[in-house]
Design brief:
alpha+beta, three-stranded mixed β-sheet, 52% helix
Length: 271
């Protein structure tokens, strides 16, 4: 069996075909691209998919009107009220075909890219959590304190964390940000500025060789903090976040495959 596919579009083909051959079968599989949403020859196929995608919503709207359904207003435990969406509101949410095409060309690709980035960030969070422990070297590179009271600290990337009592130190962090400083250069700038402006603030700095472990840092400055529980909580939350991101990504890819399969079926029918 041979399936012949037409390549639509001209200089920027909206569907680029890929052909695979065996001893008895030649199959051409299209690779769908964003250009197809602007291709006049793809318009009838895309409209058919658009109608199919929104058919369940339109059926729901028709049923609501036929039944004379009136939206119900609920009152939450905090006293706030929420009203169900009416048939007219549902209908207003359905984009017309051309608006839908525009969203497929612009908004949808950005959403897909954003989801891919979220998935990678979730994976990286799990990797970090699994590869570290409370007894590994921390990222702390500078600590600001007065006696036994910690005012804030900086990590190896130059980021600053400060408590309310040390909020005034943020002035120098803002200055470093305006200067575009990062890493060790940022740490050097902030620690030098604080030492000159506030000589009573004790500054303890560390290098990559002598930085305290996470456990040592927390035991010294946050004695009531359960570092082991915090580590387990972070690991659990990271894995749960990854599972959610993977599920969203799987649904996204499934929707893409379903759309492409539908379009391919129509195109094979008309070939």
């Amino acid at each position: 069996m041979t399936i012949h596919m037409t390549t639509y579009g001209s200089s920027n083909a909206s569907i680029a075909s890929h052909t695979t051959k065996s001893s008895s079968v030649t199959t051409t599989t299209p690779s769908f691209t964003q250009e197809m949403y602007s291709d006049p020859e793809m318009r009838p196929y895309l409209r058919a998919y658009y109608e199919k995608a929104y058919a369940p919503i339109r059926e729901r709207i028709a049923a609501m009107r036929e039944e004379g359904y009136e939206p119900v207003t609920f009152e939450g435990s905090n006293g706030t009220a929420a009203t169900e969406i009416s048939a007219d509101q549902y209908e207003a949410m359905i984009p017309d075909f051309d608006s839908w095409l525009d969203s497929q060309k612009t908004i949808v690709p950005k959403l897909r890219s954003s989801q891919e980035q979220m998935l990678e960030h979730a994976r990286e969070r799990v990797r970090r959590a699994e590869q570290t422990s409370p007894d590994d070297q921390s990222d702390v590179r500078a600590i600001f304190s007065v006696g036994d009271q910690i005012l804030g600290y900086m990590d190896k990337y130059g980021g600053m964390a400060s408590h309310n009592i040390g909020g005034y130190l943020r002035t120098f962090d803002i200055q470093a940000n305006e200067l575009g400083l990062t890493g060790q250069a940022r740490i050097d700038y902030v620690t030098d500025a604080i030492s000159r402006r506030y000589p009573d603030v004790e500054i303890t700095t560390y290098s990559n060789q002598n930085a305290p472990t996470e456990r040592q840092f927390k035991q010294r400055w946050y004695p009531h903090h359960d570092v082991d529980q915090a580590y387990q909580t972070e690991l659990t939350e990271a894995r749960e976040a990854l599972a959610r991101a993977e599920e969203i990504y799987r649904k996204q890819q499934s929707n893409i495959r379903e759309m492409q399969s539908f379009l391919l079926g129509l195109m094979e029918r008309d070939a």
